[in-house]
TrEMBL record:
SMART domains, per the entry: Ku78
Domain Ku positions: 56-183
Family assignment from sequence similarity: Belongs to the prokaryotic Ku family.
InterPro entries reported in the protein's UniProt record: DNA_bd_Ku70/Ku80, Prok_Ku, SPOC-like_C_dom_sf
Record's protein name: Non-homologous end joining protein Ku
GO process terms (BP): DNA recombination; double-strand break repair via nonhomologous end joining
Top-level taxon of origin: Bacteria
Subunit description: Homodimer. Interacts with LigD.
Its biological purpose: With LigD forms a non-homologous end joining (NHEJ) DNA repair enzyme, which repairs dsDNA breaks with reduced fidelity. Binds linear dsDNA with 5'- and 3'- overhangs but not closed circular dsDNA nor ssDNA. Recruits and stimulates the ligase activity of LigD.
GO molecular function, one term: double-stranded DNA binding
HAMAP family xref list: Prokaryotic_Ku (MF_01875)
Designated gene of the protein: ku
Pfam families: Ku
Keywords assigned by UniProt, alphabetized: DNA damage, DNA recombination, DNA repair, DNA-binding
Amino acid sequence: MTGTARSIWKGVIRFGGISVPVKLFSAVQDNRVHFRLLHEPDLTPVEQRMVDPRTGKTVPTEEIRRGLEVETGEIVMVTPEELEELVPDASRDIEVTRYVPRGRINSQWYDRPYYLGPDGGGEDYHALAAALAGEHREGIVHWTMRKKRYVGSLHGEDGRLKLVTLRFADEVVDAEAIPRPEGRAFEPLELRMAEQLINALAGDFNPAEYHDEYRQRVLELIQVKAAGNVFKFEKPKQRRPKIASLADTLEQSLSQVEKRKSA
């Protein structure tokens, strides 16, 4: 993200009689390539319309309603006014309900990350960030933003407060619902070689090493065509895997890693 980021919402962290005003900043951004849909003969942008599939005619906006099919097959209609009544009351409060040990929440519960910045004086903000980091805890919080109720994880890191929205219980699939992998028991030699391979690849995580290669290729394609040139499409050659024992495969992988490290 370039330039100065703009806050997208303001709130107040509240717990035990303490209030910490904060600003909310998105910690991720959409870098996808967004194409325009055009009519090929004259490159006029096309538009989407709601159409009755039986008549092919466009349905006016004022005639469109929302409905949901229930188990009996009946479609239950709801009005915009009814849905508006269900919207939670507007609030700026970020309520901390409890503090749990850091790392207690499994990764499948995490959804979207945000940065929190101080809104005004930052003494309480920095004290909370330092306390959370020092105690190795994260707060479970609730708040309402843009007519929607959220639950999230609040933690301190590098002198900042960070907030991650959490998925609700009915959104996360229980691991016990997934069949456990079956197979033969591994040999002690295979375990030792696998551990050696893991240690050989051990290192720090450097985000700058990883890029959306497809997006980069799409942008290269656009730039080449914009310059009036022909883009060369090159696909890596795929090697047909040879069937070998796990021990042989691990040994070959370990040898390749050691060669790359010594190169």
